[in-house]
Amino acid sequence: MDAAGVDFPLVAAPAEAIPFPEASFDLVLSDYGATTFADPFRVTPEVARVLRPGGIFVFAHASPFRSIAETLARRGMTRRLVRDYFGLHRLRITDTIEFQLTYSQWFRVFEESGFVVERLVEPTAPKRPISSYLSMRDQEWARHWPIEAIWKLRRRVPSGSLGKTRDRSRRPK
Ligand SMILES: C[S@@+](CC[C@H](N)C(=O)[O-])C[C@H]1O[C@@H](n2cnc3c(N)ncnc32)[C@H](O)[C@@H]1O
Predict the structure, then answer these.
(1) Alpha-carbon distance 105 to 23, whole Å?
(2) Which domains are present in the chain?
(3) Which of 13, 59, 92, 152 is most buried by a 10 A CB count?
(4) pTM of the model
(5) Does the beta carbon of 31 lie inside 6 Å of ligand 1?
(6) Residue nearest to ligand 1 atom 8, measured at CA
């Protein structure tokens, strides 16, 4: 903040209960943050609540492909499916708990929270990737399957309120 010459409050808080009123933000970002480590059925509607209608929610996380092909002890990716796809939700991966859903469940929780999906990016690892945390084997894996997913969602503008900047009508379910 000093280097950029800006000053704004930094708030540490649970993403399941964000301490701001509804429609407070234009943009919400999460990079392997709460959208990985907190329940999407709680976080997604809470993000929708604090975004203004038309606001953007972008987040990056492990892809569902990765979640069903990653070995339990975080020994990396495998070409075998080691976990059920149906039933994905709360995953214990060694000492951490992570959350993942099937693609249809992600679409459903987005829709029910009031989001429209604008883009799903599935990055492919380049031929000579530089990664500070993935093994060469996992980087090779990521050239064949999507290791991560980046979603761009937009909070739906309620019909009849086009042009308005604030929606205080109701909290998304
Ligand atoms: C792997 S770090 C990523 C942090 C950052 N995006 C980065 O790239 O350095 C995961 C972050 O998620 C945050 N986090 C995990 N669960 C959360 C929750 N329920 N609410 C808010 N933040 C959470 C942690 O505090 C941590 O900062």
Answers:
(1) 25
(2) 25-155 (3.40.50.150)
(3) 59
(4) 0.89
(5) yes
(6) 31
